[in-house]
């Protein structure tokens, strides 16, 4: 009898533990909330750099409202367009499983919301935790229309690190001392590069190093010895950025709503569209320390905004005054040089998944995408519409195809409704011509072909893409964002990708999971994912000037088997073109 009891007791314990786990799992869904918001797109006068501009905002806020949700929650966001421009909103990094109608890129998954019209975005957070963000996806409206989307663990689920005392979101942005839409309009007319920004910002404020800005500098209070979580978002239009805090180390714990192996660093490099979560411990003498960001610029001989934005980390126990009664100036961090690719590369290489992950191995679609700029020749060089290099017009492409957004319908609506003539599905899986991508490229290859070409993927196919930078016009780090998916970054390098030797160095153990990744300047980066989300999903450079020039394409992921592997029907209020 005793022997029987000895074997039964562990079995009962396991059963009880199993039941408890199931109940806990089910209760996490029961605790999920639905968050309702109304986003009114409207103009509002805002003063920066001594001047007042009417900027486009959400609910009169700049930056826009913060969305605080938990894994498993749903959002219902009614957008009311009270501005003068067409607009759409994109929920950057949200998987939007089977629901491209909520993704937002204008003329890709929806027609724009016209002035005076409304549209309600409905979506659910599924197995994502960390920091994402939302932004306008129409022309250059995202210069001022953006905000954070912070996803906390389910109730009862802790962080995989010690719970921080406080959390702060830092949105890095660019400020133009004129209407950003006019900056874009001028560039599209002349064919030249757009004017660079006049300031960088942290939570909409330039900081102490700019005129008329010190009073509104963002301040982060902290107690000596405490640890806080900083959610850092690069919401800048066109610029990768270095970020640092004077005299402090940061511990990276997440990127793009995916946890990472913790590692310490004094500087981070963050591209447009990317997010980075860091833990910061107040372990320095009580004082005021600058939080600062400035450009990481990889394009050769290209103008860029070389200013520095700041916020202030304030130890609560620090005195604000020196002995003479003067305000003590915060300590400024040492930021890398603007072109310090070694530091940027070392930081990116340090990002890994917390443990072993399941990377697709048997690849069904092996794609090789050249990404970069180009120049369109003009019949009248140096005319008012040909102010680019040597009397040309700037363009950009992937595999020599410069993406053209449709104007009469969205790609997804045309596909779903069977409307012909909006797109083709002959996007090339490899460049039409092989060449020395990072060498001296023949000028005959500098002018791409315009087209609205998609690449078709079967549901469930395992995909590898190698993004190869080119030296056409200039080598450059292009932050590539894939809508509707996260992917594993399995490898990167400099020079031309070698399909015979480079895959042997791929990381199939703990590669980072991201939704936006940069191609090394003059190099390559390789990603893998499973095409398990049906619909049409945009892939593009998140430098907005490059997107507008055509550095984009889209995947058409076919439905799988049954309802659970098929796109849901469009909502009744989906805007029509």
UniProtKB/TrEMBL annotation:
EC number: 1.10.3.2
Enzyme class: oxidoreductase
Keyword check for Transmembrane: no
Keywords annotated in UniProt: Apoplast, Copper, Glycoprotein, Lignin degradation, Metal-binding, Oxidoreductase, Repeat, Secreted
Domain of life: Eukaryota
Co-factor(s): Cu cation
PROSITE patterns tied to this protein: MULTICOPPER_OXIDASE1, MULTICOPPER_OXIDASE2
Reactions this protein catalyses: 4 hydroquinone + O2 = 4 benzosemiquinone + 2 H2O
Residues in Plastocyanin-like domain copies: 42-154, 167-317, 426-559
Single biological process term from Gene Ontology: lignin catabolic process
GO molecular function: copper ion binding; hydroquinone:oxygen oxidoreductase activity
Subcellular localization(s) per the UniProt record: Secreted, Extracellular space, Apoplast
Cofactor note: Binds 4 Cu cations per monomer.
One Gene Ontology cellular component: apoplast
Function, in words: Lignin degradation and detoxification of lignin-derived products.
Family: Belongs to the multicopper oxidase family.
Protein name: Laccase
């Amino acid at each position: 009898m005793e022997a029987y009891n000895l074997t039964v007791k562990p079995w009962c314990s396991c059963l009880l533990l199993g039941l408890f786990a199931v109940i806990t799992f089910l209760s996490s869904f029961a605790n999920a909330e639905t968050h309702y918001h109304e986003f009114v797109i409207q103009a509002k006068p805002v003063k920066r750099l001594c001047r007042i501009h009417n900027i486009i905002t959400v609910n009169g806020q700049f930056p826009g409202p913060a969305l605080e949700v938990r894994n498993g929650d749903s959002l219902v966001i009614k957008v009311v367009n009270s501005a003068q421009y067409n607009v759409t909103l994109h929920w950057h990094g949200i998987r939007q499983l089977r629901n491209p109608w909520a993704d937002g890129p204008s003329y890709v998954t929806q027609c724009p919301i016209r002035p005076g019209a409304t549209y309600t975005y409905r979506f659910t957070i599924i197995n994502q935790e960390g920091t994402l963000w939302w932004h306008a996806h129409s022309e250059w409206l995202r210069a001022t229309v953006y905000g954070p989307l912070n996803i906390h663990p389910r109730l009862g689920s802790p962080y995989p690190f010690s719970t921080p005392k406080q959390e702060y979101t830092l949105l890095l942005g660019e400020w133009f001392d004129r209407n950003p839409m006019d900056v874009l309009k001028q560039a599209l007319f002349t064919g030249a590069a757009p004017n660079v920004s006049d300031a960088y910002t942290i939570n909409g404020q330039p900081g102490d190093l700019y005129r008329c800005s010190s009073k509104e500098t963002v301040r982060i209070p902290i107690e000596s010895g405490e640890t806080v979580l900083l959610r850092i978002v690069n919401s800048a239009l066109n610029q990768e950025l270095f970020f640092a805090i004077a005299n402090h180390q940061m511990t990276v714990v997440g990127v793009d709503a995916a946890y990472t192996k913790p590692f310490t660093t004094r500087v981070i490099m963050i591209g447009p569209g990317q997010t980075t979560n860091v833990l910061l411990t107040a372990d320095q003498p009580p004082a005021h320390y600058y939080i600062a960001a400035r450009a990481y610029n990889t394009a050769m001989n290209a103008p860029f905004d070389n200013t520095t934005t700041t916020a202030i980390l304030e130890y609560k126990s620090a005195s604000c005054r020196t002995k003479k009664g003067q305000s003590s100036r915060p300590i400024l961090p040492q930021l890398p040089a603007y072109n310090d690719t070694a530091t940027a590369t070392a930081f990116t290489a340090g990002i890994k998944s917390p443990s072993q992950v399941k990377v697709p191995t048997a690849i069904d679609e092996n794609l090789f995408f050249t990404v970069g700029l180009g120049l369109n020749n003009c019949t009248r060089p140096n005319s008012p519409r040909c102010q680019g290099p040597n009397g040309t017009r700037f363009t950009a492409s992937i595999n020599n195809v410069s993406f053209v957004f449709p104007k009469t319908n969205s790609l997804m609506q045309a596909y779903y409704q069977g409307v012909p003539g909006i797109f083709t599905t002959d996007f090339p899986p490899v460049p039409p011509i092989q060449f020395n991508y990072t060498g001296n490229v023949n000028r005959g290859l500098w002018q791409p072909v315009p087209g609205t070409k998609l690449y078709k993927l079967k549901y469930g196919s395992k995909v590898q893409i190698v993004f190869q930078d080119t030296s056409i016009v200039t080598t450059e780090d292009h932050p590539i964002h894939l809508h509707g998916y996260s992917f594993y970054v399995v490898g990167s390098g400099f020079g031309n990708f070698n399909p015979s030797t480079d895959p042997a160095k791929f990381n199939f153990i703990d590669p980072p999971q991201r939704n936006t990744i940069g191609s090394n300047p003059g190099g390559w980066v390789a990603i893998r994912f499973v095409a398990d989300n049906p619909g049409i999903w945009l892939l593009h450079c998140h430098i907005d000037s490059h997107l507008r020039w055509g550095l984009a394409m889209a995947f058409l992921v076919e439905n799988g088997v049954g309802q659970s592997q098929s796109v849901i029907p469009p909502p009744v209020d989906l805007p029509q073109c």
